[in-house]
Structure formats: C-alpha cells, structure tokens
Amino acid sequence: MSPSGTLGPRALLRRLRQVMAEPGEGQERLDRIANVIAENMVAEVCSIYLRRGERMLELCATKGLRPEAVHTTRMRIGQGLVGRIAERAEPFTTADAPNEPGFEYRPETGEEIYSSFCGVPIQRLGQIIGVLVVQNAAARQHDEEEIDALSVVAMVIAEMAESGQLTGGEGVDLARGSAQTYSAIGGVEGAAIGVVHLHEPKLAVTQPFTDDVEKELVRLDIAMNGLRDEVDALLTDDLSGATGEYRDVLEAYRMFAHDKGWLRRLNESVQSGVVAEVAVERVQSEARSRMERAANPYLRDRLHDLDDLANRLLKRLSGTEEQEIPENAILVARHIGPGELLDYGKSIGGLVLEEGGVGSHAAIVARAMEIPMVVGAERIVAHAQNGDPIALDGDAGTVFLRPDEALFDAMSEKIAAAEAARARYQALRDLPATSKDGQTTGLFINAGLVSDLPQLFESGAQGVGLYRTELQFLIRASMPNRTDLAAVYGRVLDAAKGAPVVFRTLDIGSDKVLPYMRRPQEDNPALGWRAVRVGLDRPHIMKMQLQALLRGAGARPLTIMFPFIADEAEFYQARDYLTESHNWLQSRGYTVSDDITVGAMLETPSLADASDRFFQEVDFLSVGGNDLLQFMFAADRGNERVRRRYSALHPAFLRYLRRVTERAADHDVRLSFCGEAAGRPLEALALTGIGFRSLSMRPVSIGPVKAMLRSVKLGEVKAYLDIALATPVANFPEAFRAWAIEAGADVTP
Ligand code: PEP
Ligand code: MG
Q: pLDDT averaged over the chain?
C-alpha cells in the first residue's frame, strides 16, 4: 500500500482489467468500474461523469452517492467543481469541498457529507469526455501519487469509451456523434461534401492494459530511440544551414525529442500497467489542453512540437501504415504544411483546418489547386472521426460535421448548381470575351505550379497573366538551385504550348515567408523587406532566378514582371540585373532569347505617379489589386477584422485605377489587372468599364467573367461609371450591382 492508503495504479488497473473481461453492457461496466476504483482508492465515493453534448456533464455511475442521482444530476461545463475540472482540463483536489468557492450542492446526490474531493478530467487527445471523482468524509488532501493514479485510470476509461467498450445499455452512449456546425473563415471558395479524412489519424487502443510491463517498456524504448533518430535525421539537413530564430525553433524541437523528463513520465505511466500508446496519449492530452489555454505564442509552439512528436511516437508504436484516402475525402487537420498538402493533391475534395489564416502557405496551395477550404474551425479535430459525413462551404466559411439530411441535401444542391454553371461556362470556352458592342478583353489565368498549366486550356484563357514563382520556393525545405529552377521554368513554357506566360520574379516577405531564409523581425512585414526589395538587396538571389528564367526559356520569347515596384528606380535596377544576366549567359555560350518583355507590377499607390519616362520604358504594367487595395485603404489583406471592409468597388479605388488606365493609354503601355477582384464578375465589369482590357484571374473565374463580359455593352458601362464616379453614391457596390442586373449583365456568382 502506498503511504496514502491506495493500492497503487498497478493493482487498480489489474482489477479494472478483470472488470472489462467480464460480460456486461455499458452501464453495468461503468458501475463496476466506479466500485473498483472506490475500493482500491479507499474512497467512500467514486463517481463517473460523462459528457452530454457540447456543454453538459452527466453523472453516469457512482459508488457512494445516492443511486437516484445517476442520469439525473447534470452539470454545465464550468459549473461546480466537476464542471471546473472539465473546463480547465486539470485535476483538482480539496480537503474541504463544501466550503470551496464554486461548490454546488445537489440535494439528490447526498454529497454534502463528504469533505475531501479529488477529481481528474477524462480526456482523450484534448477532447474532454468526462470527469472522474473520488470523495471521502474525512477532511484530507489527496497527494500527487493518488492524483496520478486517478489520471491513469481516467485515461483508460477514455480509451475504453473511444473503442466503444462503454457504449450500449442504458444511457451510456457518449453521444459524440452529434451534428456540429463551425462558423469559421472561408479560405478558398467552393463547396464540398464527403467524409472526414483526418490528416493525423486517431488510433483506437482496444487493449489499454498490460500485464507485461517489461515488454511495454522495451517497446517504448525502441520507439523512443527510433523517434530520436528520425528527428535528428529530419533536422540535420535543415540545421546545417539554419540560423537565428529558425535554428532556435529546430533546436527546441530536437531537445524535446531527447527530453529525459518526458521519457520518465512515459515510463512511469507504463509501469502503472497501461500499454505504451496510452502513456503517450496521456502526455499528448495534457499538452493539448495546455496548448488551448496558453496565451504565450512561444509556449504554444513548443506544445505543438510536443504534440507533433507524440504523434510520431504513436505512429511508431502502432506501426500504422499510411491510411488509404477514401474517394470523397475532406481533409481535416489542425494545420498542414504546403508540401504535405501537395502530396494529397487532387485526392481530396476539401480542406478544413483548425489553424492558419487565409494567407497561409497551405491556403496559397489550396487556392492554386482549387480545393475548397475553411480555416479556423476550432476543435474540429477532436470532434471528428474518420469517415464522418462532412460538408463545407468555402464561401461562407462554414463547416457542417455530421450534418442532418436536410443540410446535406442543401449542400448537395449548391454543389450541383455550381457544376451546372461550370457546364454552361464550358460551352463558352472557345468563344472570345467580346462584349455585345464588340469590345474584346483578354482573359488570362494566375498560376504558380507546373500542374496548374493544363487549366489554361481547360478554361479557355489566352495565357498565364501572372505566374507566381514563389510557390516553387515556398513548398520546398531548402532554396532551390538554378538548374532545377531552369528545368521547372522550361516545363512551364512547354506546358503553355506557345501561349504567353508572365513570370513574376520572387515575391517573398510579408505573408510569404521562406522557412529556410533568415529574415529580420519586422513590426510591419507587409510594409517591410519583401518582393523586389529582397532581390535588390540580395542580387545573387535575383540574378540566380533571372538566369534560371533565361535558361528555362532558351530561344523562346520570355516575359518577366517585377513585383512591388514602389519607385521606378527599382524597376530600372532590376532590369539592369536582367540585362547583366542575359549578357553573362550569352558570354558563356547559352542560347538566350532576344525576345524579352519586361514589366512591373503596380501594387503601391506611388507608382501611378511615376515619371513619363517610366511609362515610356516599361513594356507593360500589371495592377496587383490585392496589395494595392491594402495600401490604398491601409487595411491589412490578411487581417480578418479589416480585410473585407474596403472593396475594389470603392469609388475612390476605381477613380484611382481609371487614372492609371488613362496614363497607360497616353503612353501606349499594355495594362492588365491581376488581383483577386479580376475574377469576380461585378468587379471585373467595373474594371473593364474604366478601361482595363486584360484581366488575369484564377482559372475557375474565367468562365463566369467571360459569360458576364459577353452579356453587356461595355460602352454603356463606361457611360454609367463616368456619371456614377463623378457623383456621390450611397453604397456604390450595391447601386452598381442593381444597375448591372437591370442592364442585363450576367453577374450571378
Ligand atoms: C496582388 O497583390 O494583387 C497580386 C496579384 O500579388 P499577390 O496576391 O501574389 O501578392
Ligand atoms: Mg502582390
């Protein structure tokens, strides 16, 4: 016996195991479990509360409290001592429960005579399943050993619940399967329905106990050694080149894998008689609940590391193979790296993340692959099981987990309508975007991966108006080299089959951070060291990319665009590097094109007022509306609180852009618009109305924008805008929409 009078977790677990081996339904089992715990912990009371729905806990079994309270006494999460344990996901003990602040007296239980109280959460992988409590009449404090024993038992109960051993019988179903709705943030437009496929699968431990502690310790040791080797190998490459903050992060991760305290705690759990998986999950559960409460971002990151390591360890222990991806999989994850997402590719129909913003790397990749996506669906990983039906609406930012039939039908209808529209647009594929009064607009796609190129032909666009070269850099673990890049650019041009491709040079910084490149800490990264500024300050990077582009193109025509030109001098300097690279390659005997077109992106308001010389020298200009809008209105494009506040349909923005079209026309400079607004029919109508004749957008938008352009007379749009933009109009976007619909414009989506 331990000093405090318990038999220790090992004996208790042995008894629990016997209980589980006996036949019986869920309720009987729970009752017996409560009895065994009370007996072993020398407690007068042992109660098991289980979760009902999102906010409730219900007394489901007790030894010691009045039997009539079972399935009657309910507690909200946060209410009373039991509710507080569930809310904080932390053990709680007191020698004098009735006088504890927050204690709630429930007359049906008869618990007022019990002074000492010790409760622990029953949780699995961060999800609270219930609360386990022991009580005694004598006032005494429970020691750590007892809390620990109770926690191990709670862990086992959680595993049993997970593997269905406590279900069946009266009222013990854990009701985890209820419908849930998440109002989160739309990351990529589009709707999808299917079944949950968890990025990190949850492993069900069907046999949580072990008799053979030695064997479990050996299993744990082997898995731990394997994990350390895996982490060391994973980091060796990255660490060799890493510096500063990134290096610190990697080192911290490695340190965790070698942490002795972690191993000691795992060993202790196993010694109490559970299998290694349960021991790991216990540590992981604690890390997750701490993570949810941690305000300090550094601490959160470290807890993430711990969680990630625990996942790797679990995979090693269970030897799980990669799970097969079901046909209509919707990937559900806490977070996911861009490379991992690319590995899934088109095998998933939708993506739901708990974390990450609309500008995250995963979002950039999902957008490029046109996978509907919702971010910020809090706690969905804990709630979802593989195979659960799920629907997501990437426009509204809503996720429906296990939706009821009516909802499922509504979402299916939405998807069917989108398919029908797609078929309608498909019929327009080979027709020009010519308005009813004979004005033609060039439609181009935005792309960033070689695999995007087939969409050029599927959509019926004329070429690639914006090829974001940074995606190739973002999805890699280290800086790509010149030869690899040249091959990629060559393949892009091959795939474009002679259609024009506008390569934008590396646009990193701000929200696009290369993990392998050292960056200064900046208070305002969107206004900081980014895009062409990085290239100009690090000419070797810029020249490396320019040479790769020139080599990739060979003798073929090449179009290059420099992003984020705020001062025309930056353009001249970048163009000089291009000339230098061209001459250098030529001097080395490479075949280089003589047909090179060089343009600039107008993404900062200043460039509209560049000198006439600039407008004479630049071959073309492309307005990067996403960045331009954020600078015009001083509203961060990645900040959910402000990013929808100002639209491209703001009269001030349109008047400004009209001035840009006029200056470009005066100097005969080709002008296009390649921000997201170009792909939205109403915005595209305004842009063409003020004079843009070239728009670049995501491939899915080509059809809707073309249909819209073919339904209007652009002369009428111009006439309307000339007046409307000269007079104050309340709620201009709505007034414009009403006018457009009246004029017969197809601006539906
Ligand atoms: C833009 O800013 O509008 C643009 C097209 O570039 P990105 O979205 O890649 O910053
Ligand atoms: Mg931009």
A: 87
| Co-location of 486 and 540 in the same domain | yes
**Distance, CA of 183 to CA of 726 (rounded, Å):** 39
Q: Where is average pLDDT lowest: 296-305, 310-319, 587-596?
A: 296-305
Show the 3-state SS of 64-102: CCCHHHCCCCEEECCCHHHHHHHHHCCCEEECCHHHCCC
Kindly report the protein residue whose alpha carbon is nearest to atom 6 of ligand 1. Answer: 624
According to DSSP, residue 164 is labeled T
Q: CA 434, CA 714: separation in Å to the nearest integer?
A: 9
Domain boundary (270, 301, 318) is at 318
For ligand 1, is residue 631 a contact (CB within 6 Å)? no
555 and 519 in a common domain: yes
User: Is residue 307 located within the same domain as residue 378?
Assistant: no
- Domain around 728: 429-742
Q: How far apart are CA 264 and CA 306, in angstroms?
A: 15
The tally of CA atoms less than 13 A away on the side-chain side of residue 687 is: 32
pLDDT tens readout for residues 658-679: 999 999 999 999 999 999 999 9
Work out the end-to-end distance of the chain between its first and last CA atoms, rounded to an integer number of angstroms: 71
Q: What span, in angstroms and rounded, lies between the C-alpha atoms of 273 and 392? A: 42
Q: How many residues does the chain have?
A: 749
pTM over 0.70: no
Q: Which atom of ligand 1 is nearest to the CA of 675?
A: 3
Share of the chain above pLDDT 70, in %: 90
Q: Is 361 a catalytic residue?
A: yes
Number of structural domains found in the chain: 4
Say if residues 184 and 376 touch (Cβ distance below 8 Å).
yes
From 626, 653, 680, give the residue whose CB has the most ligand 1 atoms within 8 Å, as the site to mutate.
626
Is the CB–ligand 1 distance for residue 359 below 6 Å? no
Instruction: Give the strand pairing for 74-76 and 56-63.
Output: antiparallel
Residue 370, domain member (yes or no): yes
pLDDT digits (tens, 9 = 90+) for 90-126: 899 999 998 898 888 888 898 888 999 999 999 876 6
| Exposure class string for 364-374: b at 16+ Cβ within 10 A, else e | bbbbbbbbbbb
Say yes or no: CB of residue 468 within 6 Å of ligand 1. yes
Residue 625: CB within 6 Å of ligand 1?
Answer: yes
User: Which of 216-220, 311-315, 734-738 has the largest mean confidence?
Assistant: 734-738
Active-site hit among 197, 199, 304, 361: 361
Contact criterion met (CB below 8 Å) for 367 and 698: yes
Same domain, 309 and 359: no
Residue 690 domain-assigned (yes or no):
yes
Q: How far apart are CA 183 and CA 396, in angstroms?
A: 8
Using alpha carbons only, give the angle 390, 394, 398 rounded to the nearest 5 degrees. Answer: 55
Q: Which residues surround ligand 2, an ion (CB under 5 A)?
A: 603, 624, 627
Q: What is the mean pLDDT of residues 495-500?
A: 97
Same domain, 197 and 223: no
The atom number, within ligand 1, closest to the CA of 563 reads 6
DSSP 165-214: TT-SSTT----TT--EEEE-EEEE--EEEEEEEESSPPPP-S--B-S-HH
Question: Contact, 267 vs 217, CB < 8 A?
Answer: yes
Residue that is written with structure tokens 């509710």 in the block: 83
